[in-house]
Amino acid sequence: MAGFKTLDDIGTIAGKRVLVRVDLNVPVADGKVSDTTRIERIVPTLDELSKKGAKVILLAHFGRPKGAPSPEFSLDPIVNAVEALVGRPVAFAADCIGKEAADAVAKMKNGDILLLENTRFHKGEEKNDPDFSKALAANGDLYVNDAFSAAHRAHCSTEGLAHLLPAFAGRTMQAELEALEKGLGNPVKPVVAIVGGAKVSTKIDLLMNLVKKVDALVIGGGMANTFLAARGTDVGKSLCEHDLAGTAKQIMIEAAEAGCALILPVDGVVAREFKAGAASETVAIAEVPADAMILDVGPKTVEAVNQWIDRAATLVWNGPLGAFEIAPFDAATVAAAKHAAARTKAGKLVSVAGGGDTVAALNHAGVADDFTYVSTAGGAFLEWMEGKPLPGVDVLKA
Ligand SMILES: Nc1ncnc2c1ncn2[C@@H]1O[C@H](COP(=O)(O)OP(=O)(O)OP(=O)(O)O)[C@@H](O)[C@H]1O
Ligand SMILES: O=C(O)[C@H](O)COP(=O)(O)O
After folding, report:
1. Family assignment (predicted)?
2. What would the CATH number be for the domain defined by 187-385?
3. pLDDT tens digit string along 146-187?
4. How far is the CA of 17 from the centre of ligand 1 (A)?
5. Which of 3.40.50.720, 3.40.50.1260, 3.30.450.40, 3.40.50.1010 is the CATH number of 7-172?
6. Which residues line ligand 1 (CB under 6 A)?
7. Are 70 and 117 in contact (CB under 8 A)?
């Protein structure tokens, strides 16, 4: 792949110690991994390295333990899930540097996989402290980064190590970078973005960046209310950041200047309560009752969104169009997701989506596998959409 070394460039690795940065920051409930998607994504890299005879040493973080060991943030309970998905034994060492790690590495045979304890149990990790990078590098001959979702962090295991050892993108990192290149880096035009979710405040940089890059920007979800209110529409009791009216206006101005069509809801599904089965009605956006909340965009808006999807060659999506966790306010997100999936399957659309709730919404619609690429990254995907440099990616550039 242009600009990055991948596993195709790694050469003979039998007997070599390969430090592989993975993202095992997975949801755990009652001591069990409740969503294994991130683990599934790293299997191709681990499988390939192990089959080629490397000693595969995994580096990962879990949670935010603030630089000190804490049982709550141990990676130990994750080992079983990794073993089950990789289909071979995975050893565990209770520290990622020092004697504990070195002894575990010394015991490895070619093809073995070893997971080292949470890198964030050491203060040096998040400070990108060169001494901590050296301590990590002591256990490896080569470095592979397969954790795009942690690449927005300039930490020792995501950035520092790449300065000390020959560095390569793993298969998931490679797939992610190739998909993102197709999404916004070098997309086939026209490009349409759908941005939804709860609040404008969390996505200001993203919206500012997108209006300069895409041909049309659909704004849905709770954040659309802030734009509607800024335009003078009464949104009743809807979630709305009235203090951000100025920001919303500025985004609308920048969109107009850049020639980006900005699409706001023309109708909404409103209710008086935010709960499953709450009585709801569809109203024109200028007729939202003063005591009601907009919890989804309405069918006329979905029709408009789908028409934009039909015109698009590339679609980038972050954030649901409504409160999709609660029926019937999932209808618009499900309908637009299905439409985008069908266009993608027909070979007419490149569709790239990301964000924790977005992935959940696409899964809920049953179409996540039909998108061109669905990123498991949260913060890293947002920072990429904001146009910010990702230290863990930049350092891999040849
Ligand atoms: N009209 C609405 N009113 C209130 N909440 C809404 C509305 N539309 C969407 N939401 C909420 O927005 C949330 C998702 O937004 P968010 O911005 O977090 O998405 P994301 O970027 O995909 O996720 P993450 O931040 O986890 O990566 C959901 O919980 C959804 O219920
Ligand atoms: O879950 C994520 O988004 C990544 O693993 C990064 O985690 P962090 O936000 O704690 O750095």
Report:
1. Belongs to the phosphoglycerate kinase family.
2. 3.40.50.1260
3. 999 999 999 999 999 999 999 999 999 999 999 998 888 889
4. 42
5. 3.40.50.1260
6. 196-198, 202, 221-222, 239, 294-295, 318-320, 322-323, 325, 355-358, 378
7. no
